[in-house]
Specification:
Elements (H helix, E strand, L loop, with lengths): L8 H7 L4 H8 L4 H9 L7 H10 L6 H14 L9
């Protein structure tokens, strides 16, 4: 996803042809699984330091706004579907 200012972390990873392990090392994630969660929007980095490592590790290419948009899309796609029981 491009927002006119930057890209989300998954787009950045794909553009650079990085594995999740390489991405984890670049942004300081504890594991490739955590880096994947951040990239696809399943998880959100819990500290300002982690977000700063992502932005600086990508030389400013990744924007927090684009990551937030990816997170919202993930939440919408995985939201529980409630049936009308009336």
């Amino acid at each position: 996803m491009v927002d006119g200012v930057g890209v989300d972390l998954e787009t950045f990873r794909v553009e650079r042809d990085l594995t999740y392990r390489e991405l984890a090392e670049m942004v300081g994630a504890r594991s490739p699984r955590q880096a994947r969660g951040w990239a696809i929007g399943e998880e959100w980095p819990q500290t300002a330091a982690a977000i700063d490592r992502i932005v600086t590790g990508s030389d400013g290419r990744v924007s927090v706004f684009a990551m937030h948009q990816r997170r919202l899309e993930w939440e919408r796609a995985h939201a529980p579907k409630f049936r009308d029981v009336a």
